[in-house]
Amino acid sequence: MKSFLEQNISHDSLLTLFSQAPVAMALLIGDDFCIHNANPQMLELWGRDISIIGKPLFEVLPEIISQGFLDIFKSVYHGGEIFKGNKRSVFLEKYGKYEEHFFNFIYAPVYNDDKKIIGISIVATEVTDQIVSERRWKDSEYRFEDLIKNSDYSIAIYQTEDLYIELANEKMLKTWGKNAAVIGMKLDDALPELEGQPFIAILKDIFKTGKTYSAKEDKVDLVVDGKLQTFYYNFSYKPLKNQNGEVYAILNMAADVTDLVLAKKEIQEREEKFRDLADSMPQFVWTCDNEGEITYMNESWYKYTGSTANDNQTKLVKQMMKPATAEIADEVWKNCVKTKTPFVMEFEFEDPENKGTYRWFLGRAVPNFSENGDIKQWTGTFTDIDEFKQLETQKDNFLGIASHELKTPLTSLKLYTQYIKTNLEKAGDPKNANVAGRMDYQIDLLTGLINELLDVTKIQKGQIQLNESYFDFDKLVDEVVEEQQMTSRHKLFVSRTNKIGEVFADRHRISQVMTNLISNAIKYSPEADEVHISTGLNGNDAQFNVRDFGIGIPEDQHAKVFDQYYRISASRDYTFPGLGLGLYISSEIIKRTGGEIFVSSVEGEGSDFCFRIPKIKN
Ligand code: ADP
User: Fold this and answer.
1) Does 568 sit in the ligand 1 pocket, CB within 6 Å?
2) Is the distance from CB of 339 to CB of 362 less than 8 angstroms?
3) Which positions fall inside the Histidine kinase domain (predicted)?
């Protein structure tokens, strides 16, 4: 019996249906699978034209033999089983290009009236585009997952307003102090310690507002390693929206900045501590940049000046300084900036309580360097030394008066002693005359000490007078050496590289310097027998050297020996008398003469003191 289709539908109509169907169809006949029919869609799908009709399929598409299709066709043809292919990959050579395509298809056996299989019908649709986009999507999904997994940030995604943890990377789990078991849980169940903290409410609110929330260095308390601990995070909650613009999830990204915040806090605390310390000091403590702009002043300064942090302190410091010293201070400061060396200077600031009067201050500043050797800032102090200065003046005045007062009776004492000595010699009492002679020597020593004190007071008051005239330098050397030799057991040797001749200077003061250097050489070489004196011309200068073989001077003290009252307590075996003034006076005399004085010395081996003065006044 014929089917309804065969009875009612014309053959032409069936062919039209076949050729116009939106799917690819073909009919293969015989066991060599000859293409009996193939609609245009099928021809397009294979990439072939109508000329293939009547030819065996595997002759037309040889590339599919090795892809297992021959076996499939054979099993459909001989076994009668329908074969369905789902998203099956097929490599086809279409229009000269060998490419992968994807198809859904059905191979069904075709029977004749005797129920014998005479061929195979093929119905196929190409799904290549769908598969490619699926693959791309999958790829991007994998990439996204990979990105999240390997991210330097802690990342989590919360689904729905109940905030189910859909995803949390390793870093986020570590941040929370949890493991992967929390994935799928509600955030507030996974982290119950968030109760009382604002985060859950903020997250839920984002489902309503649709707005991203971000925070910097925010404090979060989390239970990590079984303890509630405080951490600091930079984080953001970003809403993920569907096509309708509705929030369906929140992407949480966070960076742990706990170490940074704690370090910042520590620096802040330290800074506060230092400020407290600086504010509690009676000295004025300050910082400034390399241009000299004050960046900090402590409380004591504000109290002293009655100014506030809003006033321009750089200007104020300059205003407060005594005009005469301000310029010098500026010069010294500029030089320190240039040479990157500490600033030290004494100057006067106006006394705000007694306008027009000034107080002495000691200004000090040290440069703070950055790693590349540039100056970051200067840290300085101004110390009130006014009382100290007054005491120093009192002391100098006292020394001046005392030495002056002592000198007069001492002069008489010397005269009387000499008188007694002469009388005793005349009376034939040499023993007592000798005692009187020793008294006379001691009076000379005392006079020498008092003269040193007088000289120092004169130097300080700027009263030292140089009576300059031409004199024979070589002759003066001989005189001084001869006089020193009379009272010394050391042999004094004099050598001259050349004759110096006439020099324009204060003969008396230069002889004082020579005497001081030679007597020191003798005094500080108790175990030696010789002192070498040498003179000569050095360019236009007269040079005088005294070399001894005594205790020497440690290198770090070389420059200090010319300071007032400076004495080195070096030798354990000897004590040396003296006030520590001789070299100070000598260096002042030489400086005022326009010359230089210096020392080279090795501790334990001896010293070489030398001065040079211009032969003629410049
Ligand atoms: P003083 O009266 O103490 O000798 P000076 O001003 O002449 O004072 O010398 C200062 C210090 O320098 C001395 O106390 C001594 O320590 C050191 N000094 C001076 N000359 C010599 C020297 N030739 N050898 C070693 N040390 C010396």
Assistant:
1) yes
2) no
3) 401-617
Radius of gyration of the chain (CA): 54
In a domain, 374, yes or no: yes
**Claim to verify: residue 39 and residue 123 sit in the same structural domain:** yes
Ligand 1 centre from 590 Cα, in Å?
17
CA proximity to 313, closest of 296, 330, 325, 290: 296
Can you read off the two tokens belonging to residue 400?
A: 């001046």
Mutate to test the pocket of ligand 1, among 561, 571, 574, 611 (most ligand atoms within 8 A of CB): 561
Domain total of the chain: 5
Q: Is 76 in the pocket of ligand 1 (CB under 6 A)?
A: no
pTM above 0.70, yes or no: no
Residues 155 and 236 in one domain: yes
CATH number of the domain that 554 lies in?
Answer: 3.30.565.10
* Cβ 249 under 6 angstroms from ligand 1: no
Domain that holds residue 7: 2-130
Are 516 and 448 contained in the same domain? no
Beta carbon of 550 within 6 Å of any ligand 1 atom: yes
**Which CATH number covers residue 443?**
1.10.287
Distance (Å) from CA 530 to ligand 1 centroid: 17
Partners of residue 229 on adjacent β-strands: 222
457 lines ligand 1 (CB under 6 A): no
Q: Are residues 241 and 284 in the same domain?
A: no
CA of 562, closest atom in ligand 1: 6
Domain with 246 in it: what CATH number? 3.30.450.20
Q: Per the domain annotation, does 143 fall within a domain?
A: no
Same domain, 475 and 609: yes
Question: Residue 493 is inside which H or E element, if any?
Answer: strand 491-496
pLDDT along the chain (618 residues), means of 10: 65 78 91 92 91 93 89 92 92 88 94 92 93 82 78 90 92 92 94 95 95 95 92 94 89 93 94 90 93 94 94 94 90 94 94 92 95 93 95 88 90 95 96 95 92 89 88 97 94 96 96 97 96 96 97 92 82 77 95 96 96 88
In the numeric block, which tokens belong to residue 195? 């109760």
Contact 258, 232 (CB under 8 A): yes
With the most atoms of ligand 1 within 8 angstroms of its CB, the residue from 518, 519, 527, 553 to mutate is 553
pLDDT digits (tens, 9 = 90+) for 408-458: 899 999 999 999 999 999 999 999 999 999 999 999 989 999 999 999 888
Q: State in Å: Cα 133 to ligand 1 middle.
A: 97
pLDDT one-digit tens code per residue, 312-346: 999 999 999 999 888 899 999 999 999 999 999 99
